[in-house]
Amino acid sequence: MTGHGRKTGRQGAAGRAVVYLRVSSKGQVDTDYDPEGNSIPAQRKACLALAERMGLEVADEYVEPGKSGRSIDGRPAFRKMMGRVRNEGDVAYIVVYMRSRLFRDTADAAFTKKELRGLGMTILSVKDPTDDSPTGDLMAHMVDGFNEYQSRVSGQDIAYKMEAKAARGGTPGRAPLGYLNVREMVEGREVRTVVPDPVRGPLVRMLFERYATGQFSFKGLRELAVSAGLRTRPTKTYPAGTELSIHKIGQILRDRYYLGYVSFNGAEYPGRHEPLINADQFERVQEVLVRQRGAGTRERKWDHYLKGLVWCARCGRRLIIERGKSKTGRLYFYFLCMGRNEGDGCKLPRFPVAEVESAVAAHYATIALSPNEAAFTREGLERVGRADAETTSALKRNLKRERKRLAALEDQVLDLIGDPDWPTEKLTAKIQGIKAQRDAVEAQLAEADRPRLDEAVATVAPFIDLLARPRALYESFSEDERKVLNTICFTRLYLDADADRRASVLRGGVSESIAPLIAFRDRERRNGTCPEAGAVLPMGQGSSANPMVELRGFEPLTFSMPWKRATNCAKAP
Predict the structure, then answer these.
(1) Mean pLDDT, to the nearest integer, of 151-179?
(2) In whole angstroms, what is the distance from residue 360 CA to residue 362 CA?
(3) Catalytic residue ranges
(4) Residue 390: how many CB atoms within 10 A of its CB?
(5) pLDDT surpassing 70 at residue 535
(6) Is the dihedral of CA 116, 121, 125, 128 positive or negative?
(7) What is the value of pTM for the model shown?
(8) Which of 125, 156, 187 is the last residue of a domain?
(9) How far is CA 386 from CA 104, 143, 218, 477, 542, in A?
(10) Would you say residue 29 lies in a domain?
(11) Distances in whole angstroms, Cα of residue 119 to Cα of each of 9, 10, 50, 135, 323
(12) Per-residue pLDDT tens digits for 107-148
């Protein structure tokens, strides 16, 4: 899929490509005089160089500044590019700097790659190229999975730090209305903290005080807030802020942050910020809320380890648990489609809970790996990990040699300062050029030190053992353990009635944890290429191209680099 030289049947498309460029946050395009920042131009340069080497005409480029990669749904430039690919058919290649610019979600990657393959499209990646072979496909799956792994790990790390900040009384994120996020200098250090907003703080306190009297409805409280001039904070879209909605007022009156507490991930901690109201005022407000709006009264919900996992295959709505009672007074439970429960016309029958449990257990057989498939996949992953480690080691050795050479060159230039035969301006420019090259080498060394595919291989390996006997394992688990295993293996399971009107899983989505393994297994089954256990997994499938990152690293090389450059020149002078 991502190999070079893949033939295409798209008329007028051969030899033509589009370039896709993306950075994850707006902060990455606000770092230079150029409004695109530094990353987008660097990606463009590398992608155009690859297109030139491949002899491709770049028809257009699609730039996504400051868009997260976790989902393609929130990326308009990506959707526009895919619309062109589907409807115009005038290009055969998508050129990207690295695969993570396209995908950070393995489910998105699987669906998109399948569609692109059907359209005869090829993805060309500067940083992590792979060939169009079974091993190349496995590597692409692994890289996409590892990119999502890194994204999720980074997210978990940020969440951990935010929770640690909350536990110390700090405010993770933006403070609510009535407070300001500020920076203070403490013993020479800049500290980010929260202080009451001198303008909006007293007005928010007024909302609590007035509502505590029991004489104001939400509508009346909103009119009071509007007349007092209380508005939301200014934004780029609304420089003067907006009037508070009734929903926002309800949120404020229930928020214990104003009482001096910080909440994060369902846990509450004493905050360091100054409370706007006291405990008596807050309790009186909650009593009025219960009396006037019925807050605190909820229907009882029935829990089950399959809730949230099973969905209706007919209307796409979630299945919920409903309680029934027989004429004899015996209670029983069943799963019911929300579309039917809310009168949307869905005709999916009610299914007894035990019937749905059996259908889900039976579906686990669809994700099983045979012993040969498990051995084949495990050996392939280990080989990929070893190849990546060897390539990374060679890359680091070359980078360190280049760093040493640049340091020596810099010393030579410094020795020339003061020599009348060498103008100061030229020497200064030379030193600056050397420094820029050295910084680039240091950045590539730092990148090479990051965890790579070996960690991803170690992460995926336990799932191979799990998939060797998933149904038997699932049926031996307790309900709590089954819930965890369901989360590991599936995103959603869609149920319908079979010929006997019994519950059956019609289709399901596997989770990002096992998606690469299942996709690889299914493709090998279609091709019939899985060997006997213990056979060596071939690397390259006849291609001499290294499926990992080239030794030249992640950026196009300058003429000072002693190994292969990204230009048409074979060697540096």
Answers:
(1) 77
(2) 5
(3) 24
(4) 11
(5) no
(6) positive
(7) 0.36
(8) 156
(9) 23, 14, 64, 35, 19
(10) yes
(11) 8, 8, 22, 21, 49
(12) 667 677 778 888 888 888 888 777 666 666 666 666 666 666
